[in-house]
Amino acid sequence: MERDAMPTISVVIPCRNDAPMLAACLRGLAEQTRAPDEILVVDNASTDRTAEVCRAFGVRRVREDSVGVAAATFRGFDEAAGEWLTRIDADSVPPPHWLAQLETALLAAGKDTAVTGPGDFYGAGPVILWIARNLYIGGYRWSMNLLMGHPPLFGSNFGFHRSMWEQVRDRVHRGVPRVHDDLDLSYQLRPWMNVVWDETLRVRVSARPFHTWAGLGRRLAMAYVTFRVDFAAEGPLARRRERRYLAGGAV
Rounded to the nearest 5°, which phi and psi values hold at 118? Predict the structure, then answer.
């Protein structure tokens, strides 16, 4: 297949005052065996060297002054030019084969199915890493699959077709600062859409949220806010019923 005929992929990276880790993330993207067609850093009102890092790596930077990861991520999806939209965190480091593997999985899954995978946490002791891997990621996947009827998106590592975003962009809660973007987006997927969770699709993710109880508490509080606004707009039982109906009775 000629390069011009290949699908285009944008990598969206929300970033707020995370310049050193953003540089490590961009170095990882520069080493991809399948180069991104676009890297878009959404600078979420940073006051550090985020803009300098973007210039040094020659990537596109969009300023989003409404503070919140949802506002930043969803602005990135709005602005991205690619046919396929992928998402990674500024404090994550993808292995060289990440985008090639994700592209293969996305093309196999089709335009109505997102693809996501877990993270391998770094920067903490063995006990914290075990908790992050088994209880946080494992618990997130199990509980959200039970609630929504499909796996959740993991914000540090997923991709989907632009047409999926165009169908849900007016449903997400980009104006609520304490909303988890990946959880909100997962909940807004329509009944005919699905998510593939690929255990082999992995990126390295900072374990910073688990360094303190306060950090973990902030993430749990954001989950509560996300559920509150999502459930108010569409109850989980009604959401599951509609998915079962379109699936012919299967959950």
Answer: -85, 180
Using one digit for the tens of pLDDT, what is the confidence trace for 189-203? Answer: 999 999 999 999 999
Q: Residue written as tokens 């992995």? A: 202
**One-letter amino acid for residue 192 of the chain:** W
| Cβ neighbourhood burial of 51 (10 Å; 0-12, 13-18, 19+) | middle
CA 183 to each of CA 180, 209, 249: distance values in angstroms, whole numbers, following the listed order? 5, 17, 25
Instruction: Give 154's DSSP letter.
Output: P
DSSP 96: T
**Amino acid type, 87:** R
Residues whose CB is less than 8 angstroms from the CB of residue 205 and which lie 6 or more positions away in sequence, other chains included: 89, 91, 92, 119, 120, 121, 122, 156, 157
pLDDT tens per residue across span 134-166: 888 888 999 999 999 999 999 999 999 999 999
Q: Residue 19's beta-bridge partner residues?
A: none
User: Distance (Å, rounded) from C-alpha 3 to C-alpha 36?
Assistant: 12
Residue whose pair of structure tokens reads 């699905």 in the numeric block: 194
Q: Write down the residue that tokens 């878009």 correspond to.
A: 40
First vs last C-alpha separation in the chain: 38
Q: What six digits make up the tokens of 105?
A: 């999985």
What is the rounded average pLDDT for all residues in the chain?
93
Q: Which residue has the higher pLDDT, 246 or 101?
A: 101
Q: How far apart are CA 73 and CA 120, in angstroms?
A: 21
